[in-house]
Amino acid sequence: MMYNDKSINRLKRAEGQIKGILRMMEEGKDCKEVITQLSAARSAIDRTIAVIVSSNLEHCLRESIESGKDDSSKLVEEAVTLLVKSR
User: Fold this and answer.
1) H/E element, 68
2) 1: pLDDT confidence band, cut at 50, 70 and 90?
3) What whole-number distance in Å separates Cα of residue 62 and Cα of residue 24?
4) Across the chain, what does the average pLDDT equal?
5) What single-letter DSSP state applies at residue 2?
6) Does pLDDT of 73 surpass 80?
7) pLDDT given for residue 82 in this prediction
8) Which residues of 2-13 are buried (b: 16+ CB within 10 A; e: fewer)?
9) Helix (H/G/I), strand (E/B), else coil: 69
């Protein structure tokens, strides 16, 4: 599967957040500020996971339809399992 620009860009932003958090820690910033930023980074990564899973599901469903197979319920189940495992 090819990863789309949307998911790559989201992950690059999360990477920037993590680097910013490391800098905050090195500068001795307040714990509350660091935790707030860590929580934001975690949310960004969670959203990226959702984007990747949904894009993959869409791709797989299109392939399934084009090939004439009817395994859509299996594909949706796999997508849900991926989302549950990511939590």
Assistant:
1) none
2) low
3) 44
4) 89
5) P
6) yes
7) 83
8) eeeeebeebbee
9) coil
